[in-house]
Model the fold of this input.
Amino acid sequence: MSKYFDDAISELLAREEIRELRYRYCRAIDSRDFEAVEACFTPDVCIDYGAVGKFESRDALLSMMRSYAESNSTIGLHTALNPIIEFTSNNSATVHWVSQFSSHDPDTGTSVKQSGTYTDHCVKADSGWKIQSATYNMLFHNTHSTGQGSAF
Done:
């Protein structure tokens, strides 16, 4: 048990809420549910996606996501694996994730596979745990194109 919690049940509940936070983000971004994406972040979030860009507010992040979604037909699948949660207080934590992303553009037949790591800094707000900052470190990226599109 962490020194920041009075009992093991409280810590386990916090750990599960933090895991679900990233899982909800993955599902929301893949389904283009931007209200659900918004609910995952603090208003002052700072996200560094590396080559994709750095976004220093939730509004800036959502603007980029909506613009991307409106401009293409890409189908994406985000996954988050192997979380290591390190509490820095009973209301904050650093979380290390392995991330895998696959996408397919049925218009062009282009597929992407990408893996990397995230480091999230999460805080507990009145409405639950939120991501306050995140940094993505890409480990590899592979693009393949058949020139033929298909989606099911």
The longest strand covers residues 128-145. DSSP finds three helices and six strands in the chain. Helices lie at 8-31, 34-38, 58-71. The chain has a mean pLDDT of 93.
